[in-house]
Every structure is written in structure tokens, then in C-alpha cells.
Amino acid sequence: MEATSEKLSIDKKQLLSGLRVAASRIPLLAWFLGGLVAVALEQFIGNPFARGIGLPKVPVLFGFVIMLKKPFLIPSAVLYVVLIYLLPVAVVARLTAASMNRLAAKLLDLKMFLSVILHLLLFYAVLHIWAEMSDYRVLVLKLMLIAVMLTLSLNIINGYMGEFSCSHPGFMALGAYSASVFTVWLFADDRLFGPALLPPAIGPFLFPIALLVGGLVAAVGALAVAVPSFRTRGDYLAIISLAFMFIVKSLIENLEVVGGPRGLGNQPDWANLPVVFATTAICIWIINNFVRSTMGKALNAVRDNEMAADAMTVDTRKTKILAFLFGAFWAGVAGGLFAHVLRYVNPGTFGIQKLAEVLAMVYFGGLNSVYGSIVGACGISLLGEALRPLELYKWIIIPLLLILVMIFRPTGLIAFKEFDVKKLVQPKKMAD
Questions:
Q1: How many helices (H) and strands (E) does the chain have?
Q2: 93 - beta bridge partners?
Q3: What is the CATH number of domain 135-424?
Q4: In a 3-state reduction of DSSP, which class is residue 43?
Q5: Residue 26 gets which letter from DSSP?
Q6: Could you read off the pLDDT of 270-280 as tens digits, one per residue?
Q7: pLDDT tens, residue by residue, 70-99
Q8: How far apart are CA 265 and CA 138, in angstroms?
Q9: Which residues contact 40 (CB under 8 A, 6 or more apart)?
């Protein structure tokens, strides 16, 4: 009996190992092509197929919401996900692996930039077609991409710099309100700011400037935290940054010029999916280059041993301040996008709950890792939406999951791993 059990365990390990090896030989282009076929298939036959297997409609979030709301539909939801998503992706990726490998090799021979652009276009096409099925999917996807930006920007401070900052909701609020004032004041007829000063038609072209304004205002606000905090060592940054978050929140609540506690609305609808996706892609690229640059290496040295870094001629205070302002800038840009996605901002949004959410994403995904930040932001965002039908119990399950991660993976799921774009887009070794 024990021998049979041991044999089954060995067979299972061999099967998993074989699947892992087979998947590693398939290039990213083939996986994206498989995803494109899957979401196109859902567009054409999703609704009739869902009704045919007993589902009331197409599952909005891979069947998780339906499973939790109506457990008796679990078999139908699993069947839908397997036949519409998993099977087409796996089959198309396997069949096109060789040809996509050749294409990836040719693109790299020409220029890596072309390969990256093609991968991004294919990835965006998959997301766009998937989100087209419902407005809910579009909103979830936009908020998830914004969460990626926030998590990356906080990981610069809490991960790469090794400090503990609680000020990100404050930076996000500064960016959200600054970008909103810029667009509403210039391009919208509003009860607070009066008639538009410029034609709304040119607004979308100037929207990137609004995001830059939001980021710069957040970076200037970060000076109020960085200058006093980095004169000392220890936990002072956590205390000062937490105070800064409450000061920003209270200040906005008492400023009637931006709506006070009622919030500020009427933002133009310019944060569509292409804009949010492009901004997130640029954010990932710039932050990844930053953490792999000389400044990023200096930041790691400061984190590991500040006295040794100082002895090796690293200007530790300047390095920490620049990194802090850089992280605050991207939090402000994310806040500007957030305001224009929801088309309304309220100071109550940028409080303790937002802080807990962003911290959970950083530590769940992994410190000192761009991969980890992306995984953490996407994982917590999707988990929060998938568990929404459980209402109060959702806030028991997610913390328990985080506790388990902290016990078994104290640094997060994917910590201290470099994000190498070249390895992602290069062709894979095929079996002989």
C-alpha cells in the first residue's frame, strides 16, 4: 500500500515536472496568441455556450463570482473556464510554439524594441477583447493596472530602500486632486470652477500634462516627509509619513475650493483602457530601469548597510530623498488616473483602508521585485473582486491569506527577482 502511494506521488511529480518543462519551451508570443484566440472565442460563442451549460450569462471574472454566489453552478463555471480559456490557450500555444519562436528570433535580430512593442500590442489586444464583454471588466482592469503602478512606486521605498512609508495614500490624493483641478478647471463646465477656459476637444492631448502635474505635486509634497525623516534613522519615517497622510486628508476635507468632504467630480472621461495600459507600461519600464541603474544599486547598498554605503562614497541622504520623491511621483500619476477612471474623488478614499490595501499588495507580491509588485497588485485586486459576494467574510479570508504568506514566505511570493525584458521576449529552447 505504501509502495503504491509512493509510486503515485513520484508519478505526480514527474507529470508536474514534464508540464513545467513543456510550458517553459513555449515563447511568450505563443501564449499571447493563445489568449487572443480564447478571448475571441468568448466574444463569438461565450453567451450561447454559457446558457447551454446552465449559466445565466458569461462569467464576468473567470467564474469565481458565480461560484461563490451560486455554488451549485460550480461544475458549469469550471467547464466554461476550461473549454473557453484554458484549453484554447494551451492548444494554440503548443501548436504555434515553433513558428512563434522563429518570429521572436527574427525580431530580436532586427531590434529588441520591435519585439517588445509586438508583445505589448498582443497583450493589450487580449485584455481589450476580454474587457469588451462588460463595463465591469473594464473598470476592474483599469483599477488593477493603477494598483500595479501604486505597488511598484511603494516597493521602491519599502522594498528597494528598506524603509517603511505610510504616506502613499497622501501622495495619491495630491496627484488625484491636482490632475482633477487641472482638467476640470481648463476643460469642463463646473459649478466650482465655472465655464471651461479651453476647448474640451484638445483636452485628451493635454491629459498627459495633467498626470505629470499630479505626479510633480505629489513629489513636492514628499519633500515635507523626506527632509525631516532622512535626517534621522529608525522608525521616524513611518511615524512622519503616517502623520502626513492624515494631514493631507484633513487638508482636502477642509478646502471648499476642491469640494471639501463632498469630494470633487465632473472629471473628463479621458482615462480609457489604452491610456491606462500605456501609462502602466511606461511606469513599469521606467521603474525597472531605475532599480537596475546605478541609483538603484546605490539604493540597495543603503538598504543593506547604510554606514558601509556611506563609507563607499554613496551620498546616502541624497539617494534616499531622490528615491522617495521618485516613488511619490508615480503614486501621484496613479492618483490622477484613479480620479479620471472613477470621475470622482473623495478625501475619505485616501485613508487607512487604502494604505492597508497597497501595503498588502507590496508584501504579498514580494519586496525588491518588479515581478512581485505586478503579481501582488493583480493578485490582491482580483482576489478582492472574486470574493466580493462573501461581503464581510472577504475581510477575514484575505488577511488570513496574507498571514499564511508572511509565515511561509516572509519576503513575499516573488522577492528579489529582477525583471529582465530580454529574457521574456527571447525565443525558447525547443525539444530535440
A1: 18, 2
A2: none
A3: 1.10.3470
A4: helix
A5: S
A6: 999 999 999 99
A7: 888 889 999 999 999 999 999 999 999 888
A8: 20
A9: 129
